[in-house]
Design goal:
By secondary structure, the chain is an all-alpha fold. It has 5 helices and no strands.
Length: 114
């Protein structure tokens, strides 16, 4: 749902950049970029410590009794992780350069382990 929200914001932003007449632009009541950015920044800061545990494969690895290992299990966890990677890619699209650096730094270990 959040990915849907972020993609909708991108569509609105693109619509604003292609508007040619003043009547095509949304009014401040309809859309406030500053508010959206503040909400996104707050949401991003809340999620930063939890980036690694968003992945089902990470949570599986933290379980005391390991699930059977093998190529089938690895592929299944990769499939389970796919929506998380898509969500984080959508977040990176809307993030500032500093936030993108934080996102990459927070996921560096996860990338090196795969």
């Amino acid at each position: 749902m959040l990915t849907l929200f972020l993609s909708r914001v991108e569509i609105i932003k693109q619509g604003m950049s292609t508007a040619t007449e003043a009547t095509d632009l949304p009014t401040p009541k309809r859309l406030s970029n500053e508010r959206r950015q503040l909400v996104f920044d707050h949401f991003f800061q809340l999620l930063v410590p939890y980036f690694p545990v968003l992945f089902p494969s990470t949570r599986f690895a933290l379980q005391p009794a390991p699930i059977t290992t093998g190529p089938t299990v690895v592929r299944q966890t990769d499939l389970l992780d796919q929506p998380v990677w898509q969500f984080l890619a959508a977040m990176a699209l809307h993030a500032s350069p500093d936030q993108q650096s934080t996102l990459v730094a927070g996921l560096r270990d996860k990338v090196w382990k795969t």
